[in-house]
Write a structure and sequence with these properties.
- With 254 residues, the protein is α/β, with parallel strands linked by helices.
- It folds into two domains: 140 residues, Leucine-rich repeat, LRR (right-handed beta-alpha superhelix), CATH 3.80.10; 76 residues, CAP Gly-rich-like domain (SH3 type barrels).
- The protein has five helices and 15 strands.
- Strands 1-2-15-14-13-11 form a six-stranded mixed sheet, with no helix packed on it. Strands 8-5-4-3-9 form a five-stranded antiparallel sheet, with no helix packed on it. Strands 6-7 form a two-stranded antiparallel sheet.
- The longest helix is centred in the N-terminal third of the chain and has 10 residues.
Length: 254
């Protein structure tokens, strides 16, 4: 049975649902948001400058003009100059294979390699990209006003970060303290990139009852790597839609 063709697949101890997570997605506006966490605790011009500076090779990014859209996410493969082009350019391998214009070459010279085959990459200006931020920064961006403490998140039982550029778990101890009562977490259409991050998340937020990680591009588990059976002891509902058949294999190994 293919879980991605059915509306619901029951696995031992879990319900793994299929849902079209990106339909009717409302794009968050980073330029209007107010937050109080790390680089987000700045005035808006300062914050934008710092965020663009944080774009780095290997980092996860999204097109800042298309936040939340499926085709907007990718991985930085190159930062530097291009022949006959002024200024600095960023080479991005896009998650959506239909978005790219080349395979990492410029005028016959290979500038970088992509993990996927075909024309899956393009060169863009740094200021057009929104780098990934950690989970608490995304929470602050979504829910807090400038000057608010993370303590304000303590009583929240549901956090919805659908389409926000959450790319890492960050400090798991701070995350556990800040979201100690969290029951439901929506991380669909974010910038998560590995199952290791899901394992980190389970360690920090063991009280979760529901988790949506659909529409993320996660690297498969290594052959000798397993997900601890004790991870997410209270989880009853896990949504992994449009992440490919290997995602189900990884969940089944749980």
């Amino acid at each position: 049975m293919n879980p991605f063709c059915d509306s619901l697949l029951i696995l031992p101890d879990y319900q793994v649902e299929s849902s079209n997570a990106c339909n009717n997605l409302i794009n968050p506006s980073l330029h209007e948001a107010r937050a109080s966490c790390q680089v987000l605790n700045q005035t808006l011009p300062e914050r934008d400058q710092l965020l663009h500076y944080m774009v780095s090779v290997g980092g996860r990014v999204c097109d800042s003009s298309l936040l939340g859209c499926k085709g907007a996410r990718g991985t930085v493969r190159y930062i530097g100059s291009l022949e006959d082009k002024k200024g600095e350019w960023v080479g991005v391998e896009w998650d959506d294979i239909d978005r790219g214009k080349h395979s990492g070459c410029w005028k016959g010279t290979r500038m970088f390699f992509c993990q996927k085959e075909g024309n899956v990459a393009s060169f863009v200006r740094r200021e057009k990209l929104q780098p990934g931020i950690d989970l608490l920064e995304a929470c602050a961006l979504r829910y807090l006003n400038q000057g608010d403490s993370l303590h304000a998140l303590k009583d929240m039982q549901f956090v919805g970060l659908k389409g926000y550029p959450a790319a890492s778990i960050g400090d798991s101890t701070k995350l556990s303290l800040a979201l100690s009562n969290l029951k439901s977490l929506d991380l669909s259409c974010c910038l998560l990139s590995s199952w290791d991050q899901i394992i980190e998340l389970g360690t920090a937020l063991s009280s979760l009852y529901e988790l949506d990680i659909s529409n993320n591009t996660l690297q498969d588990l290594k052959e000798d790597q397993i997900i601890p059976p004790s991870l997410f002891p209270n989880l009853a509902r896990l949504i992994v839609d449009t992440m490919g058949e290997n995602a189900c294999k990884n969940v089944c190994s749980w």
